[in-house]
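Action item from last week, closing it out:
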Amino acid sequence: MSTLCPRYKFSSILRSLSSLSHLAQARLLVFHHPIYTVKQESLKTLANYLVKRCEPLTLAFHMNYCSIMLMNCWKCETHLPRRTFFCDKCNTLQPVDYKLDHFEVMGIERTFDIDADLLAKNFKKLQIQFHPDKFSLKSQKEHQMAVEHSTVINSAYRCLQQPVERALYLLDLAGKPLHEGQVDMDPDFLMKIMEINEELAKADDRDTVQAIGRFNQKILDELLREADVAFSVNDTETARRVVAKIKYYNNIYEKVRNYEREHGILD
């Protein structure tokens, strides 16, 4: 059953009337994604409604996985919407679209505060759908495409699953990548980090290490909340400063985890 993709926001609709006018005039097309199927007819209905009700406003409809640009199936040459994974006519797997970002690949909203359960659920679905073993009896080309799809899916999941990697990736997407040494850190902050590292280096028992871990996690959680707020309002500069701090505390977190693994005290 075709449903309207749930990952659009009304705020993103109110931007450019030109995009919407093209959408409203487009012929009926069906857009496919392993998780969502979207009918252009539904988009046209929404577009026409918005034009009538919001005529003074500039409108645009931005949706992940939806585009009226066409491509051809590599096997039967049927016209397909871009970001289509399987051909409507011959059901052949299509090449990886490397223009998709990790959020689009995983079928979730581009935000720092992701729905972790949805990410995991979609990952499992995509893993099953594109597992190379399912294409072992297909052509060598299709099997290789399945391998490439699986690689992209695994890479996207690993990145989005981890808060620090997700934050760094969002900064990359915003055109504000965070590289080592780009953000000047306050000397007092660096002193605190050094003191925590020294305490951890001297720790030789479970209670001390876990106490440091709890203290560090409390600060890390607060910084992650600050990062979420900054990303939610597109305050990239604040996000960069906060993420720079997060990297330091995350490094301590990893040291605590490694110590616990090495000494067999990991809960």
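Closing note: Residues 95-161 form a domain with the Helix Hairpins fold (CATH 1.10.287.110).
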